[in-house]
Amino acid sequence: MKRFAALIAREFRLFFSNNVAVLILFGAPLAYGLFFGFVYYKGVATDLPVAVVDMNSTTTSRMLIDAIDDNQHVAVQRVVPDISMLAHEMLSGEIVAVVSIPERFEQDVLMQRSPALILDVSATNIVNANFAIKGIRTSLETINAGMQIEGLRKQGVPAELASQQFQAFSIQTMNRFNPSLNYLIFLYPGLLATILQQVMLLGLALSFSKEYEEDTFRELTRQTRSPLLILLVKSLPYLFMGWMIWMFCLHVMLYGFGVPMAGSWSVLYGISALFILAVTALGILVSAVIPNQLKATEVLMVIATPAFIISGFTWPLSQMPDWVGWAASVIPLTHFLEALRNIMLAGAGWEHILPEARVLFILTVIPVAAAWIVVRLKVKQALNSESDSN
């Protein structure tokens, strides 16, 4: 028993002598727990952008618009006379829902014809869709109840009976792009992209740091002194492997589980290439800067682990604290998932995903430029070290 206790005590001493292990076991749960708590702190989505197509332009229609805008879950961003004016915003994800008020709405209400309001909801993001539906329907149903009771009371019908009579208007909800609110269609592509980023960053963490630790970088500089060529040699294998993995995910995994593709394959391939380039650039930069494999892996895992949570894919980025949004904006996955969802579910084209494409391009160019500077300095150090040894 004493030997067993001594062995247990020895194991504890070994563990607490390893600062990295202590930090991971005790620090990571605390840090990530606080971080994710801040991400979901609001608990409900508020001020989601919606639009109204007002073909009636009357006092009644303006009352409906004001009621919708007063709801905490939504905010009316645009009021237009024709729904075709909102096609771009719906496909690009700028507008979550559109309420259409028909041309003869006020007249039909007064004539007790129970006209229909059309609620078009973009279901590319199920969380946004559910909160938008809840907010808009609550506002409209409250107005509806008030209008029908008031109208019947003017006819001499008691209030308790009026509430059981006809509706002043009806509300027809249409879920666009994911009519059945299928969670597999919504979530699965994003999870596969997250896995791709994570495994690529894990592999890229070793690209330069392994050379530094094993002192083989000087051997590389004997074969070429060009920082650009070194970056290409270090990057191309990961670019190729990342592309092949993603093609397998798109054409085997997604197809096998019946996930539909509404958009253009060429657009999806283009934005996927930008994403893989941006991930590779980030991984190469971290590996070039940090000379230790373990530390490089830790840094990239700190980036990769919360990436899906803070990407805005499952919980709106607009509902997170500003500093979380800033952190998410430098991770390639954030911008790729927004474009991926809109292409696959809504059929978005290049004109709808240009903002995401631009950011992914920037997230490629800046790390590559920084990595070029770092590698150039490392090459000079290696050459100076070799000349000194000679």
Explain what this protein looks like in three dimensions.
With 390 residues, the protein is of the alpha/beta class. It folds into 2 domains: 48-176, 3-Layer(aba) Sandwich (abc type-2 transporter like fold), CATH 3.40.1710.10; 183-389, no CATH class. Helices cover 66% and strands 8% of the residues. A 5-stranded mixed beta sheet has the order 2-1-3-4-5. α3 links the parallel β1 and β2 (74-80). α8 (183-204) packs antiparallel against α13, α8 (183-204) packs antiparallel against α15 and α11 (227-256) packs across α12. It is elongated. The model has no long low-confidence stretch (mean pLDDT 88). It comes from Cyclonatronum proteinivorum. This is ABC-2 type transport system permease protein. Residues 149-378 form the ABC transmembrane type-2 domain. The chain crosses the membrane at residues 20-41, 183-208, 228-255, 267-290, 299-317, 357-375. Belongs to the ABC-2 integral membrane protein family.
